[in-house]
Amino acid sequence: MTEQCSFCGHKHLSHKLTRYLHQQGDELLIIDDVPCLECDFCGEQYFEAAVLKAIEAEHLAIINHQKKPTWIKPVAVESFAALSR
Ligand SMILES: [Zn+2]
Q1: 53 CA → ligand 1 middle, Å
Q2: CA distances from 34 to 50, 70, 71, 79, 83 (A)
Q3: Which residues lie closer than 8 Å to 55 by C-beta, 6 or more apart?
Q4: How far apart are the CA of 82 and the centre of ligand 1, in A?
Q5: What pLDDT does 1 receive?
Q6: What superkingdom heads the lineage (predicted)?
Q7: 40 phi and psi, to 5 degrees?
Q8: Per-residue pLDDT at 84
Q9: Cα 31 to averaged position of ligand 1 atoms, centre (Å)
Q10: Which domains are present in the chain?
């Protein structure tokens, strides 16, 4: 493999499937099992442009009600100032 981590310079990246959180304005979409290259040292993840474009198009279709997502989950939201410490 010729790739190198542009974040830490480590020379080995592994093919992984990961969870990706896409944000479009105030809308969120979680996509599971997204292919990426992950740095074995620092964990930085790299995605192909085609993968990111596909996710963006899918999210727009969902926002525009052209497509229904597989799951809809309620998400917990907190403001940092409101954290109980
Ligand atoms: Zn790295």
Answers
A1: 24
A2: 12, 15, 16, 29, 31
A3: 20, 22, 29, 31, 34
A4: 34
A5: 44
A6: Bacteria
A7: -65, -20
A8: 84
A9: 23
A10: 13-82 (3.10.20)
